Amino acid sequence: MQYINDWCLLRQHTIIKNGQEVFGGHADDFLLSAYKHLGTAYPKFYKMDHLSKLAFLAAEVLLQGNNLDCMAKPETIGVVLANRHSSLDTDARYFKTMQAFPSPALFVYTLANV
User: Is 82 exposed, middle or buried (0-12, 13-18, 19+ CB in 10 A)?
Assistant: First the structure.
């Protein structure tokens, strides 16, 4: 039997969990402000591309306050992430780096399986 216990939506500089707004911010600093608001300590966050940061924040919102060990066996827990524009932001930034020398670090994030 499969259940959706929680859901998270990141749209228009707002994070919504199960229909309730968790965080709202401004366009310029939304990702960083949300990260700080959630009180997460993960230094590699600053090195991620925007799409990875969005996925990280969604997972963080969904997992905060959940004691998953008591709820279910780890092998029965899954997360589904979806977006409308794939890696468009990263693709555009990678294209800009092609003016001089393409960045291998950005290229990795343009791959669909990453």
Answer: exposed
Does residue 56 contact residue 10 with C-beta atoms inside 8 Å? no
Say how far apart CA 93 and CA 36 lie, in whole Å: 24
Convert the pLDDT of each residue in 16-41 to its tens digit. 999 999 998 777 788 999 999 999 88
Tell me the CB-side half-sphere exposure of residue 25, using CA atoms within 13 A: 16
d(CA 37, CA 31): 10
Q: What is the pTM of this model?
A: 0.68
Which of 95, 94, 96 lies closest to 108 in space, CA to CA?
Answer: 94
* Three-state secondary-structure class, residue 7: coil
What residues have CB less than 8 Å from 76, skipping those under 6 apart? none
